[in-house]
């Protein structure tokens, strides 16, 4: 048995102590769940999507449970850049948390301004670009819907930022590989996927859509097989590290994502079920490696047997 497997992971310009990240929007700003799960023990915490100005989000109900998952239509609610730097980031830095900031905007300019603002901050280890947001100039389609728009936004952020860049892909494209490749060519250090899948639920009793916004993002176990397929496809097609997620509830789920080629994983909806989930998943991966004599993460990652 291996005494202590090496769980560290190399994400290009950033080395993480372990491969388990809390996914954006499901772990707040780290502080909210700290009584249950010490964010400093995780590979990194991806904080709630940040915009230049504060956003109030959508009216309730904006979260609903569905078969094997949940739907959310939070609507980009967040405190905005200035308040994040002043009120949220210092706590994370003091605790020794590896912070990844997920950014969103309605124009390329807005993404670049955010990257510039974050570039001056101490303690932001990486920027994750959420390209599932409406590209208003192109008529409301998400930036991530086309390789060209993806490249434009990634390039602008890469030029404006000091930190390494992770680009988070939406599953809502016909060919995810071309979008991933466009992001890498534009300078992405890391690719992460997947974001939620647009979906709908109905409240039969009231004969109404279950969400005020009608359509929300589906997450949780229901999307895991889709996510696994997309992570597998992208990991084979790009030379940069891939961070996988979507429906990871257990260490076994995480081990599957690592096997198909993810270098690290993001845990989202599981934290709503049990806020200790990211730590339990980390402990479970480590225990599995110990039991199966796997000395380090890199031996496991991408070792799917295709014969
Ligand atoms: C309530 C909620 C809020 C989210 N907010 C964001 C966000 O601000 N930015 C982002 O890129 N992804 C956001 N996501 C997507 C998650 O980070 C994750 O990619 C997705 O939920 C799939 O993983 P999971 O099945 O483990 O939850 C959110 C998800 C949920 C459930």
Helix content: 25-40%
Name the bound molecules: flavin mononucleotide
The description of the largest β-sheet is: 8 strands, parallel, barrel
Q: What is the total tally of β strands?
A: 18
Distance between the termini: 27 Å
By DSSP (H or I, 4+ residues per run), the number of helices equals 9
Percent strand equals: 15-25%
Order of helices and strands: EEEEEEHEHEEEHEHEEEEEHEHEHHH
| Poorly predicted ranges | none
**What is the C-alpha radius of gyration, as a whole number of Å?**
18 Å
Shape descriptor reads globular
Average pLDDT value?
Answer: 95
**Structural class, please?**
alpha/beta
Strand line-up across the major sheet: 3-4-7-8-11-12-17-18
Structural features:
about 300 residues; eight-stranded parallel beta barrel; four-stranded antiparallel beta sheet; 9 helices; about 20% strand; globular; binds flavin mononucleotide
